[in-house]
Amino acid sequence: MIVIGASGHAKVVLGIMEALDIAVTLVYDKDVAKKKIKSYSITHEEVFSNHETAVIAVGNNKVRSRLAKQYKGKFTVAIIHPSAIVDPSATIGEGSVVMPGAIVNADAQIGKHCIINSGAVIEHDCVIGDFAHISPKAVLAGNVTIGAGVQVGLNASVIQGKSIGKDAIIGAGAVVVHNIPSRCTAIGVPAKPIKFHDSATI
User: Fold this and answer.
1) Known binder of ligand: residue 51?
2) Which residues does the annotation say bind substrate (predicted)?
3) Does domain 2-75 have CATH number 3.40.50?
4) Which active-site residues does the annotation give?
5) Does CATH place domain 84-196 in 3.30.70.120?
6) Is 9 annotated as a binding residue?
7) What predicted TM-score, i.e. pTM, was given to this entire model?
8) Is 197 annotated as a binding residue?
9) DSSP-based three-state secondary structure for 9
10) Tens digit of pLDDT for each residue in 59-103?
């Protein structure tokens, strides 16, 4: 499998692949200053064969979205660390990565190219849009809806039944007790929007 990206997030993805005994055929990053990551040499030219599958090992939601469009058709599986707990009724979209210690409970739906980071908790019946990133130790209670491209920060929490609009950013440690609109940054306890932005992931 090809790994696209060679920064810090890619180190964790490579570790998961090693734990799963998934063979890494090459690591690609266009940044020529990057020479090696873990024990892998970094390739700077697109020398992908048509039949090879890939995973995008990039933490930035916008960049991940762009790369998914650029290399459409190469993503067929999710990468799930063996220590993650994923209920059999949950669905994980292609290209998504579920990191060590994460929990994805009954009937949760995770979109494509999402990151469910270390120790994050996705409770029953949550719906996570494509290209979202649920940061380490963040907790989503049951029936939460997360829009495409959302970033839920470190140790943030969302109470049951609330929704966060697409491309919103929830700050670290925030507690979401009301619905959050699209394309805003919300911080605090309780979380409140402090600014809106035009940037879109999708």
Assistant:
1) no
2) 7-9, 59
3) yes
4) 124
5) no
6) yes
7) 0.94
8) no
9) helix
10) 999 999 999 998 888 888 999 999 999 999 999 999 999 999 999
